[in-house]
Specification:
210 residues, alpha+beta, Jelly Rolls, Arc Repressor Mutant, subunit A, 2 domains, four-stranded antiparallel sheet
Length: 210
């Protein structure tokens, strides 16, 4: 675990903090699709990502989901931090977008490290800042962008996260994450195909030129 921790966070954390994470952290490999945290659960640990990606989603009163942001190498979830510090239930769902490796840190350490390590305080504040900007971008997209623009942005981000030009989500899954309907998404995907930007296949979407 030490090698992974140094590679992912060695440039962020001082040696004393790295040593403490080594003592109390648990290295975990989670497969694609694994639910790390659900809405209404108490947060027992905070993830530090070593590799892979996690998508963080919000759910409305009807059970429909909206993709908020992705977590990648060197990230943690500021909403998890908030729940840890306030002993509150999670208001988001976190699911592994790809096969992911992470270190789980006990919640009891969050407040202690905030007071003890400058690098941890900076990391927490930077995480809040980054996630807030991503949330604002999501809000701006919903409020100001047409659905076709949101869909193109979604497909580009999916391809970047998964490091391939194949999107293996169904039209219904895309609709859930964009808080739209399958009919609308299917129509827009068909339009993108007619424009020569993507290819639609039975079980996947191939990006050609977005």
């Amino acid at each position: 675990m030490l090698q992974e921790l140094r590679e992912g966070y060695g440039n962020l954390f001082e040696k004393g903090l790295i040593d403490e994470i080594m003592q109390v952290g648990t290295l975990k490999d989670v497969p694609e699709g694994y639910k790390l945290m659900d809405i209404g659960e108490y947060v027992k640990g905070m993830p530090l990502l070593i590799s892979g990606a996690i998508k963080v989603l919000r759910e409305d009163s009807d059970g429909d989901e909206l993709l908020l942001y992705y977590l990648e190498k060197g990230d943690t979830c500021s909403m998890t931090l908030t729940c840890c510090m306030g002993d509150a239930k999670s208001e988001v769902r976190a699911i592994a977008e790809t096969d992911t490796k992470l270190i789980m840190v006990p919640v009891q350490k969050m407040e202690e490290w905030t007071a003890k390590y400058r690098s941890w305080r900076n990391f927490v504040f930077e995480s809040y800042h980054t996630r807030l900007n991503e949330l604002l971008q999501t809000l701006d997209s919903i409020a100001f962008d047409r659905m076709d623009m949101r869909l193109v942005g979604y497909l580009k981000e999916k391809a970047r996260i998964n490091k391939e030009d194949i999107i293996r989500n169904t039209h219904q899954e895309i609709a859930y994450e964009l808080h739209s309907s399958r009919v609308v998404i299917s129509r827009l995907l068909k339009k993108l195909e007619q424009m020569g930007k993507i290819e639609l296949h039975r079980n996947y979407i191939k990006i050609l030129k977005l």
